[in-house]
From TrEMBL:
Naturally occurring in which organism (per UniProt): Hippocampus comes
SUPFAM superfamilies, alphabetized: C-type lectin-like, Complement control module/SCR domain
Residue span(s) of domain Sushi: 190-253
Protein name (record): Selectin E
PROSITE patterns the UniProt entry points to: C_TYPE_LECTIN_1, C_TYPE_LECTIN_2, EGF_1, EGF_2, EGF_3, SUSHI
Amino acid sequence: GIHLWECKSTQCAKTPGRGCMLCVQVQCWSYFYSNTTMDWEQARAWCQEHYTDMVAIQNQEEIGHLNTWLPKKATYYWIGIRKINGTWTWVGTNKSLTTEATNWAKGEPNNGMNGKILGDSEDCVEMYIKRSSQPGKWNDERCKKMKTALCYTAACQKDSCVYGECVETINSHRCQCFEGFYGDKCQHAVQCNKSELTLPPKGSVVCTDKYGNFTFDSLCQYSCEEGYKLSKPEPLRCTATKNWSHPPPTCEGSWKILPPPQKKQSNFTSCIRVLISCCSFSLALQPSSAPLFST
Ligand SMILES: [Ca+2]
């Protein structure tokens, strides 16, 4: 069975079918708890199946809120912290617990007096809700113990926004789109004008798209027929303002690309070559030019 939060506080706002939300600044969560007890592993699986995950305590305000509104249970509640390789870790984010964030009850974590009490290590964390002493504080416990699961649901889900950041708002969320995207889920990329991709004489263009034809971050590479050179070699990019990064280039002039010289010649050799070619040129001219100088 599933218990929905009972809304009694002004901090809470009722959402049909979703329980109740606690909103701290712009962040909102709905809390849920099981009406049966389970071990820590089962509790986490139950939370992940029905909600987002086991609770991760954000601040003292949240602790106060949970302690005020959750019913007292004899075995208390499992929360989303576990000892992993000797370090207390928030299981939802896989981040280690900082000293400032800890909320241990007096004398805890004691690891069951290092096994002296129960012969087993205490690697999971419970929260003392409505306990007569140390209410809202944490205790390390053996993971196989049976306790109530405490879960939360964030309004923002993994797939809430396709190309944007999800921002929690009171009772809901909205998508803040990344540059170049729009739509309620930021699912659309802005489009650039295809007709602006004019072809210059002797030129052609090929476009590659990331998000769709002629949309944000599409790249259009121009090329020229052999012997012609682009006035600007960089491809045109469709920008977030729906404009191409620059106008289409032109294909310019006759820029025959000659193969590089095969051997480096010394100045001496090339000098002789020039002389030889001069001689053969004048010799070749001799017969036809001869009459001009025959006097
Ligand atoms: Ca303990």
